[in-house]
């Protein structure tokens, strides 16, 4: 049994499909009057959040509680970390308390990888977002949402996303969501196109398994799903693009642009959305926008990952790069 | 002072000869030498080099004695075959006054494992805004000849120009840490394919190359000497080559780690590979090796940067930059330059002893192995191969990227003015 989920790139096609299929099972639990399974009874999971993220933390917490795990929430703010304690010491303290799994969100790229591979702790490590590197459960919930919408919930069992055309738009440079999605969607057979101004694409992107375009209008008509990324307003001060207005004109998604997409195509966003700039209210509130579903699906995906890592009997996840 | 007879060593890799040390100097070089009462060192098969000179060492004292001290750093130097090191100015307090440089110089003199030549800061507090008292540091007992804000770039063009002009008065040299600060904000590794994948802030090659281009033109304009620290990119090599062809008085160094390691290693997120400038690509490594071989790059300098364990045993972003290098430098140079056929041992002597001593004006060092010269010598067992074990380091810090890696060559003996500082691999 493999121990950690650090990067979407660590997942094989079969791993990913197994997680998506398991998440379908977990989604059914949410429809029951009592939304709980006994799978992780007696296991302790700590949500180790060095970076604020209410949405992701609550999603993991809901997933853990639905699997009957004992949950400890740890936020760096006001903790010993703010007094200068290191990641290693914090992790070892938690391990000494008998933690079985650590869900970690950290501002530094690679922090979960270090936690999993440095011998500091024995617990399973699940990456809940590290710096501008990876956010694998976000990519999984996005793929899950796409499969449900584009293939269908039950019809989707066992299926990947072969041949689907996915467009990811916005601040790719600073986005762990974009990195994770490119890796996972490629593994699942989708064709990914990244659309952004050149300033918001990393140097070295040519090695990624995707297409790159600066032109949103040309990409939209051939997209099955368009995923908008959040644009951090503070980026504007760093001269990544001239003005909010210019960004919005070239890379924002409004109703007119949405209508150029194929009829079946969906609009996605990892949230929180900046309405008016990257996405208009008309698009955000339309039936084609899956933002709310993504949140719901996030719980199912995280249940599936926790179940397969800690509670399931089948091998689900690949080894980390180093273990390979 | 006792006599020492080094018997049958390949002097600078050439034919086996005997070398007699007497009274701190080389007394005789030849074959079949004998000297009554002399301690004999059997050196058949080993290579005898002039004592190595490192133009770029961080000894951390004063201020960060938990990382390194002048004593531990010079012991590490002697272990690596060095007889002189230039100690960088980014200490606490900064070595920007005659008082601090004299303190470092005096500690080196007292400990006696190698000569310590302090580098003076170019600007007060390394802050880049006001010139430090360069003349006072030169006139001090330490006799500073090399000035550098290393760790930081002298990014203000006017300050750099003034520093280059000012040191002409006493034939000093400004050693530049070439890093355009705005282009490297948040930078954590080489910008390229790997940084894009890992989501780590990119340190673009152009941030180094732009400063080098500016500074060689400034040096030309004011007719001064400029030395470029730790070149790391193929583009930097091209600029230095162009500048030299144009007659500009520029010299340049490369570190052993930039001759061997690439940014692919950062995939491990192990901060032992975090260094400034960052590890670059395979192509850069190959170009740097060629440039060192053809003389475009003048010297190898270690950028020995000790850090305590806790400063590296953490997540990448929080880790300190730098790696120790004094004790492994010669092995890495053998691996990358000698064993690849790019450089012979005379070439190594030039890049690691003659040239750095000349650039830094380290009198008595970087001299030929011939009669009457100071007996600053290093004996190397070039046939040795073994894995690096940092537990045996003399340095106070262990942040080496080579732990467990097999490297060739081992320094067995080092002599500083005829006195052995290292015998059979053990410090005296």
Name the helix and strand elements of chain B from N-terminus to C-terminus, one letter apiece. Answer: EEEEEEHEHEHEHEEHEHEHEHHEHHEEEE
Query: How many β-strand runs of chain B?
Result: 19
Oligomer: heterodimer
Count of discrete alpha- or pi-helical segments spanning 4 or more residues of chain B: 11
Query: Averaging pLDDT over every residue of chain A, what do you get?
Result: 90
Structural shape of chain B: globular
How would you state the average pLDDT of chain B, rounded? 97
Distance between the termini of chain A: 13 Å
Distance between the termini of chain B: 16 Å
What proportion strand of chain A? 5-15%
Main beta-sheet annotation of chain B? 9 strands, mixed
Biggest beta sheet summary of chain A: 5 strands, parallel
Q: How many individual helices of chain A?
A: 11
3D shape of chain A: globular
Family (chain A): Belongs to the aspartate/ornithine carbamoyltransferase superfamily. ATCase family.
Binding site for L-aspartate (chain A): 83, 176, 230
Pathway (chain A): Pyrimidine metabolism; UMP biosynthesis via de novo pathway; (S)-dihydroorotate from bicarbonate: step 2/3
Keywords (chain A): Pyrimidine biosynthesis, Transferase
Question: What does this entry look like structurally?
Answer:
Chain A has helices at about 15-30, 55-65, 85-95, 110-115, 135-150, 175-185, 215-220, 245-250, 255-260, 280-285, 290-310, and strands at about 45-50, 70-75, 100-105, 125-130, 165-170, 190-195, 210-215, 225-230, 265-270. Chain A has about 325 residues and is an alpha/beta fold. In chain A, the strands form two sheets. Chain A has a five-stranded parallel sheet with strand order 7-6-5-8-9, with helices on one face. In chain A, strands 2-1-3-4 form a four-stranded parallel sheet, sandwiched between helices. The radius of gyration of chain A is 19 Å and the shape is globular. Residues about 315-324 of chain A have low confidence and may be disordered. By secondary structure, chain B is an alpha/beta fold. Helices cover about 30% and strands about 20% of the residues of chain B. Chain B has eleven helices and 19 strands. In chain B, the strands form four sheets. In chain B, strands 1, 2, 3, 4, 5, 16, 17, 18 and 19 form a nine-stranded mixed sheet that branches. Chain B has a five-stranded parallel sheet with strand order 9-10-13-14-15. In chain B, helix 4 (about 155-165) packs across helix 6 and helix 6 (about 205-220) packs parallel to helix 7 (about 235-245). The longest helix of chain B is centred in the middle third of the chain and has 18 residues, at about 205-220. The mean pLDDT of chain B is about 95. The chains are: A alpha/beta (about 325), B alpha/beta (about 425). At the A-B interface, helix 4 of A face helix 5 of B. Chain B: It comes from Streptomyces cathayae. Chain B: It catalyses: (S)-dihydroorotate + H2O = N-carbamoyl-L-aspartate + H(+).
